[in-house]
Amino acid sequence: MSSASTAIQFDGVTLGYGRRPAVHHLDGEIPAGCLMAVVGPNGAGKSTLLKGIVGTLKPLEGHIRLKGPASGIAYLPQVAEIDRSFPLSVYDLVAMGLWSRSGLFGGIGRRDHARIEEALAAVGLTGFERRPLSTLSGGQMQRALFARLLLQDAPLILLDEPFTAIDAKTTADLLDLVRRWHDESRTVVAVLHDLDMVKRSFPQTLLIAREPVAWGATGEVLSPENLLKARRMVEAYDPHADVCHRSVA
Ligand SMILES: Nc1ncnc2c1ncn2[C@@H]1O[C@H](COP(=O)(O)OP(=O)(O)OP(=O)(O)O)[C@@H](O)[C@H]1O
């Protein structure tokens, strides 16, 4: 049963594609206000887990319960999933962060304009308003996407590999925003590969290898034994297996 301080509750969750599970045996909760990293080897199911939380992927089994409506989620997908050829300006992209409030055709008032400019300033993109997305560097694009997240003003923020292929300065600036969200008591869940960063900046961690390997305080979760176990579990996983029904001992 989820409590008032639970942001996300997993009950016997299996997530997958077709009938093939990508993540299973997921039980537990993410407390509200938690700053949590999701780590694991390639193919461990980290992105799949975020898609399950966002609701773009329905569980094959079990339930994911969210405190608050799905519209209260701000989600940053992996860079590879974002189409930059779409003819949008930086301003338009960032303004999309207001959609949940203004609606698709709501128009942008003076206050909204000021908020967009504020968000652009917070990510260091003042002056980039009219630039087409296709002309941005990878780091500038990620800054623009963070500005959009800022405007979404969501209690739950999901980030899928937000710092991949961006330089140290951009990473530090964006990590400051993540800390700010945490200070504002938002729940932040980020898929990350840089374990040093996780140890430094993320108090809670879920180590996943198609199923949870360890979940809790980062220092305990990221033990050499757990990391080895996770690698072995992903290597041993049968990608053709059907949904399994593990009996409770
Ligand atoms: N759309 C899809 N259709 C079928 N299988 C998929 C799909 N998306 C992911 N998978 C499979 O689900 C498994 C988990 O993938 P997922 O992308 O969640 O892993 P990940 O931990 O995020 O990996 P990485 O660190 O490489 O990004 C993989 O075996 C992958 O091939």
From TrEMBL:
- Alphabetical GO biological process terms: zinc ion transport
Residue ranges of the ABC transporter domain?
8-235
* Keywords per UniProt: ATP-binding, Ion transport, Nucleotide-binding, Transport, Zinc, Zinc transport
Q: Which PROSITE patterns match?
A: ABC_TRANSPORTER_1 (PS00211), ABC_TRANSPORTER_2 (PS50893)
Show the GO MF annotations: ATP binding; ATP hydrolysis activity
- Asked if the keyword DNA-binding belongs to this entry, the reply reads no
Q: Which PANTHER family match?
A: IRON TRANSPORT SYSTEM ATP-BINDING PROTEIN HI_0361-RELATED, METAL TRANSPORT SYSTEM ATP-BINDING PROTEIN TM_0124-RELATED
Q: What NCBIfam families does this protein map onto?
A: AztA
> What's the family?
Belongs to the ABC transporter superfamily.
Q: What is this protein called?
A: Zinc/manganese transport system ATP-binding protein
